[in-house]
Amino acid sequence: MDVHKLEQDAVSLAKRAVQCDQAGLTDTAISYYTEAADALLNANIAGSRLPQLREKVAELLEMERARFLLEKAFDEDGENNHEEAIDLYMEAAEFCLSLTKRAPDLETRNKVTSLAKQAVERAEALKGDAPKVAASSAASNQSPDPVRNIAVKNASGSDDRRQPVQVASGYTKEEIKVLRTTSYINGREYVPFLSVDVREKFALPLPFNDKRLLPLSAKQKASLNRWARPDEYMSDPSMVYAVSPLAIKQSIVSDCSFVASLAIAAQYERRFNTKLITSIIYPQNRKGDPQYNPCGKYMVKLNLNGVPRKVVIDDLLPIGHHGELLCSYSINRNELWVSLLEKAYLKVMGGYDFPGSNSNIDLHALTGWIPERVDLQDPEEFDPDKEFLKIQSRFHKGDCLVTTGTGELSDDEADRAGLVSTHAYAMLNIMEVKGHRLFQLKNPWNVKRWKGNFSDFDTVHWTPEMEKALSYNRKVAVDNDNGIFWIDFDSLRKFFKIIYINWNPALFAHTTCIHRTWRAGEGPRKDRYSVANNPQYRLDVTASGPSAVWILLSRHIMDKDDFADNKEFITIVVYKNEGKKVFYPNDPKPFKDGVRINTPHYLVKMTENKGRTSYTLIVSQYEKSHTIHYTLRVYSSCPFKLSPIADPYNPKCALEMTGEWKGASAGGCENNMQSYNRNPIYQVNIDNTSTNHLLVELRAPKEFNVGIAAVPVSHNIPQPESAMKKFRSGPLRRGYCILELTSLPGGLYNIMPFTFYAGQESKFILNVSSSCKISCSRIQ
């Protein structure tokens, strides 16, 4: 690099900048000022000995920052956002006046003084209009109501397909509490992203600094030289040069799934000319393109814990001893979007010492697209032909994003195959050619490729016809290891464990969601015998023809250790039972019984036929031990209604009694004629003349089969003789049973809990819930 040439270029460009500035050619002047700063910066890096070079670089960078402040003020002014414009004009004026004290000559001092004067004059002019502006805006200004489709709105960037229609809007107090609680992730607060946030203040008089640096991984710490801003190691920083999956490179951070997610999202944006990934980065220009900000402040919109949330970062990045970035980056020189998106995501996840994730989670955070997990190793659920045709068709239509991951491989297996154990790969293409089903994958490392069938080393399967059909040149590819390779479907199923698919929510016409908390103390630790205390929801679907209905359960995560060692196994169980409350996990038999898995997202997919159907949805955990916060979202191509199942019982009227079968009172069931009537009896008094609802629950050791009988003693108003019949809980069940009595007239009722065999001694718990005030006492 010719240092003298760079110095000459800097001087020449600076002179042109001043000439254009004096001629009023502002945009051209800004361009020349920027180029002059870049040339000076390069000269400085190359070892220039010009006196006060560093000061000159700093001066030009400060001028660039001043012009950025003014540019943002002009933008707000042009959009009639007068209050924001006034603030920015005044900040620009103050910054310019501070520069006059450091100006090296009279000409520079006059220039920044003139800029300050223009900014103040425009601010004062706007202030003169302020009362009128305030009055007009007050008439129309309303507090924006949060909407429930916030997680899918604009999830597809500028996708011209219809977005889901909202079934309901507005949050309940309970939901607001859930979203507020789960805003705190790894000790930092990430509030929900609102439309007003696009006007976040990015133009600042001093470079923005976050509260603290992100924690580094052990490898980063060993190689770290310094933290630096882009203008310290780049000649011409830009946010986006060309969005391409080929340019994205993972370094020493263990976030392969996230980098694979970036790659596949970038490819989608490029293929379909849709701002899927770049649209979440701010600040943006009027075209919606993310901008480089010389003030160093950025905002990223990520879908986290039920809603899109606002993540603010600075642009300090870790640099190694050889000037290399110690984070993921774009191989397109001077391009920042990869590194900044990674920084924003890893800030939420607790730092660069990230324990790892999967692409379903990462892509959902980046895009809001619906995550589905396909287990390649499940012989019962996985249909190779069906899945291949589905993925191939939907991938080429742009309906989904696809990544895949290897399972556990020994070092020898991984070396022979050219793969990495438990590693994520982006799926760039899927084709069927001459009977061969092929996937094109990308290793986020940008190096290390498959060595088996259809690899770059395979001279058997790559015939001239196959190469032509796939626009592939094996001889060129074999000498260029960029981590991209073709692999056949059979090999994929052998060496890879999971396919992660994220579906475009714009495929569905309707959506809504519910945010809730399920406390650890609500119900038993295991729901093997009872789901009475599990969260339950009624889903009413009205279909005019074949329709898709998908249900997504998302558990909120607030701690890095929860990511690293996820011990919460969740699922959704669906019952086709007219939307009634379910008490026993297998009665009625589940329509869809999900597998409990320890990932934050679980998806149930259903197909509806014409007509109206009501379902019960139950949230379930395996061995519940912690309070969880979750979001339940439904996507549907037909109208539906989702609501918590209404409980007719008044919680203030619930009673709990502890009893015991012992000695003579352990009478057993009716098969034991002589002892049955000696079982404990509780008398419930319903002191009214209305119709009532009563629920009796019996809990006992799971080794015992138990039941409940209820006998009317008297009624407060005359009833037909049939009203005196005996009620039973049905077949005896292990450890738990219920007796639900509806439309019950007021009066006295005797309740008898019993076991199957006489002589089975144990304590038990009897819970009585009622729609009205009752009293209950043991009479035997």
TrEMBL record:
For the region Disordered, give the residue spans.
130-166
In terms of SUPFAM superfamilies, this protein maps to: Calpain large subunit, middle domain (domain III), Cysteine proteinases, MIT domain
Q: Name one GO molecular function term.
A: calcium-dependent cysteine-type endopeptidase activity
Arranged from A to Z, the UniProt key words for this protein are: Hydrolase, Protease, Thiol protease
What are the Calpain catalytic domain coordinates in residue numbering?
A: 227-505
One GO BP: proteolysis
What domain of life does the native source organism fall in? Eukaryota
Q: Where is the active site?
A: C256, H423, N443
Please give the Pfam families that the UniProt record associates with this protein. Calpain_III, MIT, Peptidase_C2
User: Per its UniProt record, what Gene3D superfamilies does this chain match?
Assistant: 2.60.120.380, Cysteine proteinases, Phosphotransferase system, lactose/cellobiose-type IIA subunit
Q: According to the UniProt entry, where is the signal peptide? A: none
Q: Which family does it belong to?
A: Belongs to the peptidase C2 family.
- The protein's name in its UniProt record: Calpain catalytic domain-containing protein
Native source species: Capitella teleta (Polychaete worm)
